[in-house]
Design a protein that fits this description.
- This protein has 295 residues and is of the alpha/beta class.
- 53% of the residues lie in helices and 14% in strands.
- The chain has helices at residues 12-21, 33-41, 50-54, 67-75, 80-83, 98-109, 123-128, 140-150, 165-193, 198-206, 213-223, 233-250, 255-269, 280-287; strands at residues 2-6, 25-29, 45-46, 59-62, 89-92, 114-117, 120-121, 132-137, 154-161.
- It has a 6-stranded parallel beta sheet with strand order 3-2-1-4-5-6, sandwiched between helices.
- Helix 2 links the parallel strand 2 and strand 3.
- Helix 9 crosses helix 10 (198-206) and helix 12 (233-250) packs antiparallel against helix 13.
- The chain is globular and about 65 Å long.
- The N and C termini lie far apart (48 Å).
Amino acid sequence: MKLGFIGLGVMGAPMAAHLVAAGHDVRGYDVSSAAGEKLEAAGGRAAGSVADAVAGAAVVITMLPNHPQVEEVVLAAGGVLDAAGPGTLLIDMSTIRPETSIAIAEAARGKGIRVLDAPVSGGQAGSEQASLSIMAGGTAEDFETAKPVLEAVGKTIVHVGPHGAGQVVKAANQLVVGGIYGLVAEAIVLLEASGVDAATGLDVLAGGLAGSRILELKRQSMVERRFAPGFRIDLHHKDMGIALAAARQAGVALPLTGLVAQLVAAGRAMGHGSLDHSALLKVVEQLSGRVPAEV
């Protein structure tokens, strides 16, 4: 299948490479020329513009940082909706506001272009291992068309509802992930302040009811204070804003989500925005007046 892929960053580059490996003809565009060169090294083709990437593609994938970039790439002159032909399937895998996904689907409908919002969970590791969880919003028919493409980059691939539903599920994912990181951070601080070896304590927690993917994958790096980004606090801060806005739109109260959002915002204000979101541990340590253990 001929695919256009726009956004070859930390997440998009490995995803595009997996699509090439699956046998698709992938033409990708990114504002960084180095990203295009990396795609070509993986067997894809670098495009000189959004329109160049989209021309003739049966499926177009966007993987961009936030809604302003998605709106610019999709809706602006020379963007996806201008360059794509009728019947093209646009799969936006960015994490953005549900209302933006709905607005894009409505704008695309008038041009005969089909749309799915299909944000992902799994971070950089999931992208590199083609093991992402993908939550798709749109029609069941378009989801079935997209599945062979999505299966090249993900393991858990679920149609969750109409346009915008994928973004709501992703917002729910991010509020849970942020909350667990905050609680694991508090557990580490409590264990260490009580003179208990945190690594041993978390090993026990990981084997019981408190076990989670975060404890499975991140407990050692958190105890060792290794915060190289798999998913940056800056991006999680953006996602928590989406979660709070979605809660307001739905008319529900999410008090713990609000607290987690403040912890993430504090991490960003402290200058930790470029670190992994597990660096919420640094926020909790500072609140407790504790000096991080030496590594």
